[in-house]
Specification:
Blueprint lengths: L3 H12 L13 E8 L3 E8 L2 E8 L7 H12 L8 E5 L9 E5 L4 E2 L8 H15 L11 E2 L4 H22 L5 H15 L9 E3 L8 E4 L2 E4 L6 E3 L1 H12 L3 H14 L5 H28 L5 H5 L3 H17 L17 H5 L3
Parallel strand pairs: 7-11
Antiparallel strand pairs: 1-2, 2-3, 3-5, 4-5, 6-9, 8-11, 9-10
Length: about 350
Amino acid sequence: MANPLDHKIKEYLRKLDPTILDIDNIQSISTHKIGLGESNLNYLAIINGKKFNIRINMYPHFPKKSENEFNSLKIVEPLGITPKVFHYEASKEILGETFIILEYLDGRSLNKYKKIGGDVIRKLGVAVAQLHNTNINNIENRLKRHGSSKMDLLNIIKQMIEYINRKRKHYFPIRGVFENVLEKSYKHLQRLNFPIKPSYVLGHGDIDPSNVISSQRKLKLIDWEDLGLMDPALEIVGLFDSFDLSNKEKELFLKGYLEVREDTSLKKKLPIFLPFQIFRVFCWAIMHIYELGEGETNEVFLKEQDLKEHIDYTEKMFTKCKKAEIIDKDVRWNISEIVPEHYLKLTT
């Protein structure tokens, strides 16, 4: 049975001015679904042999997601580390949500590799440094700011904890061990010394292995909806965490980075941001389980999710928090104290 979205995409492309896609006329079109990410549904469209990615927003809580990513790609396109973007469609009547059309990259995302070589890690450092070197004087007012001060980071974490506690009250009316763990960890972060003043550069906002494509021996970054101003050390700490880099690999990344961008304070800042980043991601992971369990994301996205994978990732971040001494070492992982019992049944 034909996918109705395939038909709708083809009909839309036939009516679109082909010059928008750098094509004189449309002779042939084929489409098929290529993947569903955390917040996007992606279709490959081949028009006259040329490949495009139709990227549909699947995150109802972020209605401007497609628009933000389109504008972000236009800003960073001259750097040569992104796919080319062609078109933004604001109407939800066509495919049920907003979407963008961009260049399809032939290649593999780094999360598909069993082992990422040292040369690739160094090249990634170079690519991130190029991004951070971008002159922001003429675009600063159009960009969101990813708060990078201690107060900013604590406020973000506090909002996440409040969300988690609101959800948990429906299923755990009596305050339990887990609330105490979150509260104690938050107070630990409050006490930490933060002897730096953040500086702000142009940052991607979500550099993880699934958002880096190896294409024709070059690295390209995708998923640009979180582009904004942030401290470079905060972005790099997030990258180190998501890639699970060893100390040797971190040095390779920094070698490539510092070849392109001079930053004498960078290595001093990294360990200061680290505990805030790890605990923030842990809280986000718990939030995401509740979003899935409560059906707060797009229905198409929900159908293809394995809740166990998200729970396993949350446990991984819990372990990192213990190793970093953000969570007490005597606290044991117990998912049944974090989410309701019926969520766990969804994993079997």
